[in-house]
Design goal:
With 171 residues, this protein is α+β, with helices and mostly antiparallel strands. The protein is 28% helix and 31% strand. It has an 8-stranded antiparallel β-sheet, covered by helices on one side.
């Protein structure tokens, strides 16, 4: 049995949706922006922008931008099998692996973030911050696919609230 530590965490949720739809939600700009991001840009082979509707591929670089945050996340797709698994760099040196596992009429979405540095700042901002963030975003994905609603704040600008990222649950 794995023990809890600051090097990694795993978040899981069952979602009643077709496997193909879930993969699209994770593996295309169009899909990611439907429930998660304000903007997702993937660059194929360091040359041109991948079309928003096209599935990402290993070695694509990305830039992600969220609603209510002026920063951006940049990284690289490490693996994308076109069906039920993808992996990408995230938050500096850490990595995120998303696996989609069919179970009856649902799909288990399993997200593992690992290779997290264990200095005090990384423990707070990456381990705690990303763990909380992924919990919300996986819940948002379930709400979107099962009920057609989005839970994240898109109407009120929270960027001027100093502690918004630590206090608002739907950022």
């Amino acid at each position: 049995m794995e023990t809890l530590n600051f090097h990694s965490f795993t978040k899981k949720i069952y979602i009643k949706a077709p496997l193909e739809k879930l993969y699209w939600c994770w593996a295309s700009s169009e899909g990611l922006c439907s429930w998660f991001l304000r903007e997702a840009i993937f660059t194929k082979n360091k040359k041109g922008k991948r079309p928003d509707s096209e599935a990402i591929q290993a070695s694509d670089d990305y830039i992600w931008r969220w609603h209510n945050w002026d920063g951006k996340e940049e990284g690289t797709v490490l693996e994308a099998n076109g069906k039920d698994m993808l992996e990408f760099t995230f938050a500096g040196k850490s990595k995120v692996k998303v696996e989609l596992i069919p179970k009856n009429d649902s799909v288990l979405v399993s997200l593992k973030q690992y290779n997290i540095p264990t200095d005090e700042e990384s423990k707070l901002h990456i381990h705690v911050g990303c763990s909380n963030g992924w919990s919300f975003w996986l819940t948002n994905l379930k709400a979107y696919l099962e009920h057609g609603v989005l839970l994240h704040e898109r109407e009120i600008d929270l960027r001027t609230v100093p502690m918004a990222a630590f206090e608002f649950v739907n950022l």
